[in-house]
Amino acid sequence: MANKVIVEININGDPVELLCEPRQSLLEVLRDVLELTGSKEGCLTGDCGACTVVIDGRPVCSCLMLGVEAAGKNVATVEGLASGMSLHVLQQKFLEHASLQCGICTPGVLMSAKALLDRNPNPTEAEIRYALAGNLCRCTGYDKIVRAVTDAAAALAGRTHPAHGTVPSETASGMAGEMLAKGEAK
Amino acid sequence: MKQFAVVAPADLASATRMLAEPNRSALAGGVDLLDMLKQELAAPAELVNLKALGGLDRIESVPGGVLRIGPLVTLNQLAAAPAVRERHPALADSAAQAATPQVRNLATVGGNLAQRPRCWYFRNPDIVCLKKGGTKCYAVAGLNRYHAILGGGPSFIVHPSNLAPALIACDASLALNGPDGERKIAVGDFFTSPKVDPRRENVLKPGEIIAAIEVPAPPTGARSAYLEAREKQSFDWPLAAAVAILALNRAGEVVHARIVMGAVAPIPWRAPSAEKILLGAKLDRALADRAAEAALAGAAPLAHNAYKIPIARAMVRRAILRAGGVADEPA
Ligand SMILES: Cc1cc2nc3c(=O)[nH]c(=O)nc-3n(C[C@H](O)[C@H](O)[C@H](O)COP(=O)(O)OP(=O)(O)OC[C@H]3O[C@@H](n4cnc5c(N)ncnc54)[C@H](O)[C@@H]3O)c2cc1C
Ligand code: SF4
Ligand code: FES
Ligand code: FES
Q1: Which domains does chain A have, with CATH numbers?
Q2: Residues B13-51: pLDDT tens digits?
Q3: Would you state the CATH architecture of domain B1-50?
Q4: Distance CA B152, CA B193 (A)
Q5: Which residue among A58, A63, A133 places its CB closest to the CB of B235?
Q6: Which residues from chain B sit within 8 angstroms of residue A130, using beta carbons?
Q7: Ligand 4 test: best mutation among A47, A51, A139, most atoms within 8 Å of CB?
Q8: What is the interface pTM, i.e. ipTM, of the complex?
Q9: Report field, pTM of the whole predicted structure over 0.90
């Protein structure tokens, strides 16, 4: 029964063929088999959201599904957010608003926020908080996260956020930027 | 976690045959099952993946106003479906308020009804309580803040499903498919009191699958409300939940009433005494107070959970007022 199985998954736009045990969670497959360590392991019980990835447009806890169940699906992880060293606008706004401290929650929060904005480009604060209810953050107190998501939505829509002038478009620089670009928020 | 295989049944009949073999578990969203596997509270040799079966993830309107909900419909799908939101807002809200967005995208309606309880003694792999074949319920003399205040004994779990009380209030029924064919039962008859058997929470027989959830059209003019109280606003298991479905006539008298509570008892807890007080009477705040009082009249708290009684009472009262369209404020 310990036999491994071959699974094909589309990860961040690339078809990937991998070998895993049926009992490995998608999170274990991502981190241990594919060495995509952007998705974080927090609780393993569905409570913290640090492991959030987006499957076919929907955020899910990768700790609560088996890797074999992702067969044939499109899985988006934080590693796919930036293009090269050019940050996704959400990542950029997280830096500008200081929306992360220790950073363990950040990859999951970004993926929940990405799924929200793809579905609802102009969310209200209540909608943002409802969409991020499954992402625990012990550091920031959430307000800075909500501000960054609000601002990112405005930037994506070409609007100017009242408090922030025009939207900066420079690429990331500095340690935090590089780590975010790699999905390696510590 | 022990090793297991994941198998894909070709159709419902072969799924039920596979599941009738010893040491098999049905896999739906996997939210609860993976937790049980990680804790080694379950160690099946094979998971029969229901998601391999086509067509079970749809909500269909069938003639007569019945909604036929596939067991693999996710909680987010249920919460967002226009037909559910329009006809059965309490059911939609019970799903929308369960767990987190990421969990609701995985968790299915069938799995939500068949999930195991969250009692912390049950979830601890080192403890063998009554529910796991032991001799004693550790909640009785232990930490019982979140346990049952109604219908408890010999196990004092609260049934964890948000959806079940709403489905019962909607007079919904289940189509169960097993090796011996299909049977249909009311959702209210699906759950097993620990007084009958503390080791199980429902009547599913080996090999049986919830194949559909059928929700009839609401009575004319009926309005519904689902409310829950929690410790944490972002997401949490409810401390108490209440569903009210009411229809009033032109005179403001109640002509149809369903009151069902969640998170208060080992099974979803219907309150016929409250329904009786409501029926035929003119709905106002005083009547809602009396009905809510009656709903909790039989409560028998353990050492640490008497605080749940006024919370449950408030949920029932507010759900009644909301469903009845009466403002909830002092006269
Ligand atoms: C962080 C967190 C918070 C939560 N909060 C809530 C909450 O507030 N309210 C609430 O109601 N729930 C809550 N849940 C529980 C969650 O909703 C359930 O675990 C989920 O609905 C189970 O569905 P599933 O499809 O994942 O089931 P699975 O895990 O796949 O299955 C659960 C059980 O049901 C059986 N089963 C599944 N489908 C069928 C079927 N069609 N027929 C027969 N048997 C079947 C399986 O064999 C297994 O034994 C929470 C869960 C988490 C992780
Ligand atoms: S309440 Fe039920 S599950 Fe919890 S310790 Fe008692 S018997 Fe076990
Ligand atoms: S690690 Fe998956 S939710 Fe916490
Ligand atoms: S930044 Fe530390 S948990 Fe969110």
Answers
A1: 5-80 (3.10.20.30), 89-178 (1.10.150.120)
A2: 999 999 999 999 999 999 999 999 999 999 999 999 999
A3: 2-Layer Sandwich (3.30)
A4: 8
A5: A133
A6: 101
A7: A139
A8: 0.95
A9: yes
